[in-house]
Design brief:
about 700 residues; Rossmann fold; alpha/beta; elongated; nine-stranded mixed sheet; seven-stranded mixed sheet; 22 helices
Length: about 700
């Protein structure tokens, strides 16, 4: 800490200001008197001079006390702003009133022999103006000096310093410019500002020019030799943010982004609040907003089971469920490492949570019955599934065993043990599937719809038990005695629902982590096809939808998320390369490997014959169930299970017989009208609230 005559530096500054103020308040009104009489001391009447001389000591004491109470000696004047200016104005107004009233009273009480009632009017006015200017001037002089000094440094970086472009000439942009250009410790300078508001273009903010709109970004980057671009547009829509970032990515500049409005509301607009631009910012879709109050009320005090609880979706489900104070949370997963990881995380964050972590397979009917018999879960989120398309094409029987039969066994165990809600995590690959994974998930949806329909008809007893072995339940009997438990089956109230969504950013095996690893290795980045398109959503969004579905389910619905405009995977790969500070096709090569077996150029969210119903959330829709012969379907499932466990090579043909929308040969998507429309939408922003039948 710097010292000033053995004292702290600020104390020395305060003493200097106090001495300066004594001189100013005493001499300001004398100068006013001197000016009033043509700058001739001998022309000043002795009664005026005597009044000033006798009142000045009293006025000095009162003025210094006023300045002290208004903290004019404790402010850090190098950061002087509106607050300091306001306090200086108030102090000057108060001391002017004190001087005017005080010296007038003194003249009338003690100097009446002079036959004057007051000082000249010009004395009061000129004295107040001189005092205010001198008091304010010395305090803001250092601040002005710093501003002038920074002006001369713009565009002339020294050492490791950068020229910065700020996009956004609003309040957030102004605060960012002031902080950056006011930091003398850093060589970085804001050299230009971009804003689409033509009323702001050609004007200045803190000496920095607003050079144009987004169409001028590339030109300004070259002209001002910009190395960094900061986005300070927290209120702009995600679609506009995407468009601006797309332009910025044509440059070699480092991009940073002010994430949202809360920084502006909290006054936390600073360089430290800026974040690196993420791939989510380039998707051009506003985040899905879900009223979690309903979810809280629904889950509070309930026992919740999450199958596949260690996976990407399952673990996020566990996190969000844990925050809603359930009675008990059960994590069920076959992979112990993932289950253990989320268990440790939740125990650390929620030590009060009644947490149970179980290892097992949804394909094991005895295990599922045991879990439901012991813990009696009220709500089940069924996220356990095999999901990798190429792997399942090579092992189709495993897709049927785990996805379809595993769902059936879990749903049956939930039904007969009094579970209130069963929520299936589905995928848009279940729509018009061209691969066995998608077909198996469509089977899962049909299973859920079958269970729900039978329960609503009071015919739950007609749902067959598909076991590869017998299980002992209820009095030690093998299977369930349907006749003895007829009333029980008629009173089952379990509600079944499915949630369908597309690709999830950052999930295990998703394309973005793969691209990132390939970029880290120096490439090449592999894309299956230059025209392949997909929809994307974040894991928290997907989980919010799942939770909302479980809350508002009436039974039998397939909830579908409107995920905005589709994204070309090729564009996504190129954006990731640019975000890494590299150039696609130059620093990192992009290689097209061709579509894999069972893979489509696009994925659909709804079958054409399903149709949709709106919900209170404009981004969430409900697909109307497609009718099919439920009894025939349930009978065929038994044969399908036997074929799967026999590892039949004919399994795909059997699935195609049950899922009439499953086409093993794929589709000629390039020539289809649907694909043409989707490609147009991938280039242009979709209208808000529009559901397009693609992933």
């Amino acid at each position: 800490m710097r010292k000033f005559f053995g004292k702290e530096h600020w104390i020395g500054v305060a003493l200097f200001l106090a001495l300066y103020d004594i001189v100013v308040v005493s001499m300001s009104y004398f100068v006013a008197l001197w000016l009033r009489f043509d700058c001739r001391f001998t022309e000043i009447p002795k009664e005026y001079l005597s009044a000033w001389k006798h009142f000045t000591p009293v006025y000095i004491v009162l003025a210094i006390m006023c300045f002290y109470l208004l903290r004019l000696y404790k402010s850090i004047w190098r950061f002087a702003s509106y607050s300091e200016l306001l306090r200086t104005i108030i102090a000057s107004m108060i001391t002017t009133a004190i001087h005017t009233v005080g010296i007038t009273l003194m003249i009338r009480l003690y100097f009446d022999t002079y036959k004057v009632k007051r000082m000249p009017i010009s004395y009061y006015v000129i004295g107040a103006v001189i005092q205010f200017c001198l008091i304010l001037g010395v305090r803001f002089a250092y601040r002005f000096f710093l501003l002038i000094k920074t002006e001369t440094r713009i565009g002339k970086p020294k050492g490791v310093s950068y020229n910065i472009m700020v996009i956004g000439a609003g309040q957030a942009g102004q605060m960012l410019v002031r902080e950056i250009n006011g930091a003398k410790e850093v060589g970085d300078r804001v050299v230009c500002i971009i804003d689409d508001n033509k009323n702001k273009q050609g004007r200045y903010i803190d000496g920095v020019p607003v050079v144009g709109g987004r169409e001028n970004i590339l030109e300004a980057v070259e002209h001002y030799q910009v190395q960094k671009i900061f986005l300070a547009i927290p209120s702009v829509s995600m679609a506009e943010r995407r468009d601006i970032l797309t332009i910025c990515q044509e440059t070699d500049c480092e991009l940073k982004n002010l994430p949202g409005m809360f920084q502006l509301v909290n006054g936390d607009v600073s360089v430290s609040s800026l974040k690196n631009v993420s791939i989510e910012d380039l998707l051009g879709r506003d985040p899905i907003r879900v009223d979690m109050g309903e979810v809280f009320a629904f889950l509070h005090g309930k026992t919740v089971l999450v199958t596949g609880g260690g996976g990407s979706i399952g673990s996020e489900l566990c996190r969000q469920v844990a925050e809603h104070h359930p009675k008990r949370l059960i994590i069920f997963d076959i992979y112990e490492n993932n289950a253990y990881s989320i268990q440790l995380e939740l125990r650390e964050k929620h030590p009060e949570l009644d947490l149970v972590t179980l290892i097992g397979s949804v394909r094991d009917s005895r295990k599922m019955f045991q879990v439901f018999e012991q813990y009696k879960p009220d709500v089940v989120y069924h996220a356990a599934a095999h999901k990798h398309v190429p792997l399942m094409e090579d092992s189709p029987c495993e897709a049927i065993k785990n996805n379809a039969i595993g769902t059936y066994k879990t749903a049956y165990a939930a039904m007969v043990h009094g579970c209130k809600r069963f929520v299936l995590i589905s995928t848009d690959k279940a729509v018009n599937p061209t691969n066995i994974m998608g077909a198996s998930k469509r089977l899962c949806e049909m299973i859920i719809q079958s269970f729900d329909a039978k329960i609503k008809e009071g015919k739950a007893a007609e749902i067959p038990q598909l076991f590869t072995h017998y299980t002992k339940t209820r009095g030690g009997k093998e299977k369930l005695n349907l006749e003895a438990n007829a009333d029980f089956f008629r009173n089952i109230k379990t509600e079944f629902v499915a949630v369908r969504f597309g690709n999830v950013l950052g999930s295990n095996g998703s394309v973005i982590p793969i691209f990132k690893k390939q970029i880290e290795k120096g490439g090449p980045v592999t894309v299956t096809h230059p025209d392949i398109i997909r929809y994307f959503m974040t894991i928290p969004e997907a989980v919010s939808l799942v939770l909302l579905a479980g809350t508002n389910a009436g039974g039998g619905e397939i909830f579908v998320l409107d995920m905005g405009s589709p994204v070309k995977i090729d564009t996504l790969a190129r954006n990731l390369i640019r975000l890494s500070g590299l150039k696609p096709d130059e620093d990192i090569k992009i290689v097209y490997t061709g579509l894999r077996q069972g893979e489509k150029l696009y994925e659909e969210k709804l079958m054409a014959e399903e149709g949709i119903r709106k919900t209170e959330n404009e981004k969430i829709h409900i697909g109307c169930p497609i009718k099919f012969d439920i009894d025939s379907f349930l009978d065929d499932l038994d044969d399908l299970m036997d074929a799967a466990y026999a590892n039949s090579r004919d399994i795909k043909r059997l699935v195609a017989g049950m899922v009439n929308t499953y086409h093993q040969e794929g589709v000629d998507a390039i020539k289809s009208e649907t694909y043409r429309l989707l490609m147009e939408e991938a280039g242009d922003a979709a209208e808000s609230g529009t559901v397009v039948s693609v992933d």
